[in-house]
TrEMBL record:
Residues 3-166 form the NAD(P)-binding domain. Pfam families: NAD_binding_10 (PF13460). It comes from the Bacteria. InterPro entries: Ergot_Alk_Oxidoreductase, NAD(P)-bd_dom, NAD(P)-bd_dom_sf. This is NAD(P)H-binding protein.
Length: 271
């Protein structure tokens, strides 16, 4: 299982172990087994004896090419089920380039399943893109009043564990979201309420946001890409709710308010 220490990966490992599955956690850094998309000498130890794999791609411009090579390698070493973490927004964007890793997987094997989640709730607790301004008490984003049905990464992981261990998901794309769409202002307001803090939210233009990021040493191309993602939210491109969690797990996904209450108790948003 690649990305075993990431936002979803560590929870996938936990769910699989609770199901009694034997899990080999691999990552480029701290997992027991080292795996590097760009070092094929690490691949045999990762796949030896395995039957299924959860894949988090290389997250760069070479991701599709590396995934294609790995899928061919894995199929030749007995893997019969490959589950890829993608993103619902890539499909909704209309930009085929953002679906390159999905296409690489589907073209390279028959035993695939794709998970397309919305924005993770954990972005507010684990990524400085959202966590840092929340902590600072002032959030400026080019998201307007658009809605996003944030999903708990633990729900994604539980779906992944189910798909990896149950039949009936081959050749299926599962779109995953939380139970309701919230604007970024509503999400920040929820965090303010559960923390008892005053946290301001201001919608800014994409250019203002790019300037803010570049002032904090974010490269311009990355800053513009992030602004583009928030612009999709502003335009309502990702506001719809998907039924994937309910379809696979038979229960509703976790709500943002419950996530925020739990996260606030850890002190992650202390000033």
């Amino acid at each position: 299982m690649t990305g075993a220490t990431g936002k979803t990966g560590r929870h996938v490992v936990a769910h699989l172990r609770r199901l009694g599955a034997e899990v080999r956690a691999v990552s480029r850094g701290s997992a027991p087994v080292r795996f590097d998309w760009f070092d094929e000498s690490t691949w045999p130890a990762a796949v030896s004896g395995a039957r299924a794999a959860y894949l988090v791609d290389a997250q760069n411009e070479h991701a599709a090419e590396r995934l294609r090579a790995f899928v061919t390698f894995a199929a030749g070493h007995g893997l019969t089920r490959l589950v890829l973490l993608s993103a619902r927004g890539w499909a909704d964007s209309g930009d085929p380039g953002l679906l390159a890793t999905e296409e690489a997987l589907r073209e390279s094997c028959d035993a695939w399943t794709i998970l397309r989640p919305t924005w993770f709730m954990q972005g507010f607790t684990e990524d400085d893109l959202l966590r840092a301004p929340v902590r600072a008490g002032s959030v400026r984003l080019p998201a307007g009043a658009g809605g996003e049905p944030f999903i708990d990464a633990r729900d994604i992981a539980e779906v992944a564990a189910a798909v990896l261990t149950r039949d009936g998901h081959t050749g299926v794309i599962h779109s995953l979201s939380g139970p309701r769409a919230l604007s970024l202002e509503e999400a920040v307001g929820t965090i303010a309420r559960v923390t008892g803090r005053t946290i301001g939210y201001r919608s800014v233009s994409p250019d203002e946001y790019v300037a803010d990021l570049m002032a904090h040493d974010v490269p311009e191309d990355q800053a513009r890409f992030l602004a583009r993602l928030f612009t999709w939210i502003r335009e309502g491109e990702d506001a719809h709710v998907s039924s994937g969690v309910q379809d696979v797990l038979g229960r509703a996904p976790r709500d943002f308010a419950d996530f925020a209450e739990e996260a606030a108790a850890t002190g992650v948003w202390a000033a």
